[in-house]
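As the next step, I needed to go through one protein, both as residues and as discrete backbone shape codes, included below for the reader:
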Amino acid sequence: MIMPSLPSFSSLLAFDAAAQHGSFTRAAQRINVSQPAISRRVATLENDLGVKLFDRATKPMALTDAGESLFAVLRSSLSRIEAEVETLRSGGQTKDFVISAAPGFLAFWLVPRLDHLTARLPDQSFALVTTGTERSSTNSDVRVRFGTGDWPDTYSRKILNESVFPVCSAELTRKLGTEIDPVQLVNERLLQLPDRASEWYDWPLWFSAMGHQPAQPLNVLTFDSYALVIAAALSGQGIALGWAGLVEDYLKTGALVRLGDTAVTSGKGYYATCKIGQEDDPVVAQVLELLSDGSLLPS
């Protein structure tokens, strides 16, 4: 039986890097070669296969149908090779499966569900890291992201829709009541993340989405993490914005109380994501499914 002649590994690696980054320049930086070298290797691969792999007229470059097909198979295979190399380098020990997310999502959604996650994958060790750290940006197996789910070169499955409403401590509701008109909130102390510092709602954006523009400056306390916002709300320091799915446990116990039935929704949400091709890895596939199918319940 005659074995098929495969393209050179260097040309396949150049194509993989260019497909992930949408740019020969960034691909060159990724694998530490020159930009012309990446261009030559991809051109050699295209000549070998007899098809165009990139539409170079777009910015960033877009994969053709043939390029999409090759990238899906190649990335899946390389992901498995990378995982096996990591295992061998660690002395044969199973490496931690790294899940990265914003601190608020980790603290209020994932940590309460860890018992169920680890029970479903008893032979797998996990590491939870906050988004923005070096480990989260380079070694995440699954990254939980907030947005619309359409990131480049990313496979995504939705976990939660965005629904945002005001919450405060039970003690504070004795003063305010629970059926307060949202417009009345402009006179209260409001707790939030830094103004417009992220893709999440702050109070001015929330009021705007409600169709109300406060006439006077808001009395706002700002915190640099959502965990601190919720801690301040629990201690009666003011009214916070609660995200459905993140504050549910506090609402069930009565530690926090929802003010009224009004909520702001959007087309955004939390998504479990990985790089294209890695969704075929058995463990990645199972974690993606568990995070998104509603089967993980808080302990």
Summary: The domain at 97-159+269-292 is CATH 3.40.190.10 (D-Maltodextrin-Binding Protein; domain 2). The mean pLDDT is 86. The chain has three domains: 9-89, 97-159+269-292, 162-266.
